[in-house]
Each structure stands twice: as structure tokens, then as C-alpha cells.
Amino acid sequence: MYTPALENLRIVMVETSHPGNIGSAARAMKVMGIKDLRLVSPRKPFSQETFALASGANDIIEQAKIVPTLQDALADCQIVIGASARSERTLQWPQMDARECGTFVAEHLPQQQKIALVFGRERTGLTNEELDHCNTLVHIPMAFDFLSLNIAMAIQVLTYECSTAVRMATPTEAGIADADEALASGEAMEGFYTHLEQSMIDTRFLDPENPRLLMRRMRRLFGRAGVTVSEMNILRGMLAAFAGRKFRERS
Ligand code: SAH
User: Fold this and answer.
1) Which of 5, 18, 57, 188 has a beta carbon 3.0–4.6 Å from 184's, enabling a disulfide?
2) 83 CB within 6 A, ligand 1
3) Ligand 1 pocket test, candidate residues 81, 97, 148, most atoms within 8 A of CB
4) From the CB of residue 157, how many other CB atoms can be counted at a distance below 10 Å?
5) What is the CA(158)–ligand 1 centre distance, in A?
6) Better pLDDT: 47 or 146
7) C-alpha gyration radius of the chain
8) Rounded to the nearest whole angstrom, what is the distance from the C-alpha of residue 122 to the centroid of ligand 1?
9) Which pLDDT score, from 0 to 100, does residue 7 have?
10) 136 in the same domain as 203
11) Residue 113 pLDDT
12) CATH label of the domain that carries residue 240
């Protein structure tokens, strides 16, 4: 599933200590269809572990831009969201949870705004000065406030929420496929019942002089089933095929 709007979503990692975490982060991004990675002064160069943990996301690592300061990483971004391991309700910065962040990103990406998700150092997170660059913060609620997620796992959770929300908001090929899974309209159901009734009369299964409750029962049965658009196509095709066979039998 490729969602073009996600090209405007950037992941920024500030002064990451472990080269392996950069590889894991690249993998987390790649599986969610996000490519733009900026590394602010990583503490160590890429290592074997980086590429081992990237596991198929080497292209993200190779394209990643290394910049000296956070400002450099954010220069062309309109919206900056800082990921914080702590719940910052007491501070001045507005804070969202992971799901709200996805919705927020899905609302703003289609307007061609570049959005950065900023992640802090493994040990100390983001400084207050760095938080000042963020329009808003996001915190993934955890069972224990004194713990934090591994940085690549935090990236996985947030990129999942963003890509899911963007996909649901954008009419994509997946969206078109889903349209087949929508329930058949009332009009389509009525067309089907007429077709079904006629087929049953034609085959003398139903006597129009003495219909009893057959059609009502059929309506109850198919109404309970929640027939989808694609299932309706099968049912109509089936009735047509039965009629075709009957026609051939007669001739
Ligand atoms: N002791 C540090 C933990 C940093 S974890 C601190 O208190 O800030 C490294 C980075 O992973 C964090 O800076 C943050 O960007 C991200 N992260 C970890 N847990 C997170 C969570 N629950 N919600 C959002 N981001 C999280």
C-alpha cells in the first residue's frame, strides 16, 4: 500500500547513540511507507548493526540526511511534532496521544504541509530548548509512567498511527477495493428481490397465486446476512446463470 501523502512526513532522530537503533528505525519507517529520515548529529557512524537491523530498509539509511542541528532538520517543515516519553500535561506545550497524532497528521499532510516527527536521545530525550521548536508534542500512553519505549518502537507506533489515519482519509486503490465490501444499497437489494422472485416464479418454485410468506422470509434471510456489493454481484450473476441454463434446457 503506497500512500503519496506520506512522502511529506519526516522522521527526525536527535543525537542517537546506538547505530542499531537507526537501523531499526529505518525498518519501522519502511514497512509503513515512510522514507524521509533526518539524523541530527548521530553520536556514532553507521555500523554493521545498523544495516543488520534495517533488514531490507537499507535504502532509507542510504538516503538519510545527516545534519548538524535540529533547525537544519526542520528548515522546510511547516509542522513539528516532538515525541516525548513523558506525559507533559503540566508543561506549556500541547500534547496529543498516538492516535490523536495520526488524525492530526492525516488532516494536515494533504494540504502539502511538511510535517516532522522528532525523536530524542535514548537516555535523555529532547531538551526543553528542542521542545520549543515543536508546535505540539505526542506521547504514547504506557502502563508505567516511569518507563519509556525503545526509540525505534516509538517510531513504529507513531508511523503506524500516522499511516493508518492517512490511508483511511485518502481514497486509494485500497479504498476502491473496500467499496466492494460496503453493504449493498437498498436499491440493489430491491432489484435482487425482484429478480429472485421472478426466478422462483419462472422455475415454479413460487406460485404467484399462492406466494405465502416466501418472499418475506427471503427478505429476512438476506437482510440478516448483510450482503456486500461484491456478494450482491455474485447473487445476481447466479440468478442470471440459472436462467441461462434453463433457457438452454428448453431449446
Ligand atoms: N529517558 C528518556 C527516554 C528517551 S526514549 C526520557 O525521559 O525522555 C528515546 C525517545 O523515544 C524519546 O525522546 C521519544 O522521542 C521516544 N519515546 C519513547 N517512549 C515514548 C513514548 N511513550 N511516547 C512518545 N515517544 C516516546
Assistant:
1) 188
2) yes
3) 148
4) 18
5) 12
6) 47
7) 28
8) 7
9) 93
10) no
11) 81
12) 1.10.8.590
Cα 75 to the center of its chain, rounded Å: 27
Whether residue 174 lies inside any domain: the answer is no
Q: In testing the pocket of ligand 1, which one of 16, 84, 134 has its CB within 8 Å of the most ligand atoms?
A: 84
Nine-digit cell string for 226? 448483510
| Predicted TM-score (pTM) of this structure | 0.72
Is residue 21 a part of any domain in this protein?
yes
Write out the H or E segment, with its range, that includes residue 60. helix 58-63
| Residue nearest ligand 1's atom 5 by CA | 122
β-pair partners for 200: none
Task: Tally Cβ neighbours within 10 Å of residue 33.
Answer: 19
202 and 146 housed in the same domain: no
Residue nearest to atom 26 of ligand 1 (CA): 85
Q: Identify whether residues 35 and 151 lie together within a single domain.
A: yes
Q: Quick one: which atom of ligand 1 is closest to the CA of 118?
A: 15
Please tell me the predicted confidence (pLDDT) of residue 42.
98
CA angle 27/159/164 to nearest 5° reads: 120
Position 101, amino acid: C
| Residue carrying C-alpha cell 529532547 | 126
Q: Mean pLDDT, the chain, as a whole number? A: 89
Tell me the CA–centroid distance for residue 140 and ligand 1, in Å.
Answer: 9
C-alpha grid cell, residue 52 = 543488520
Of 70, 151, 160, the one to substitute when testing ligand 1's pocket (max ligand atoms within 8 A of C-beta) is: 151
- Residues 6 or more apart in contact with residue 120 via CB below 8 angstroms: 14, 82, 83, 84, 85, 126, 130, 151
pLDDT bucket at 251, cuts 50 / 70 / 90: very low
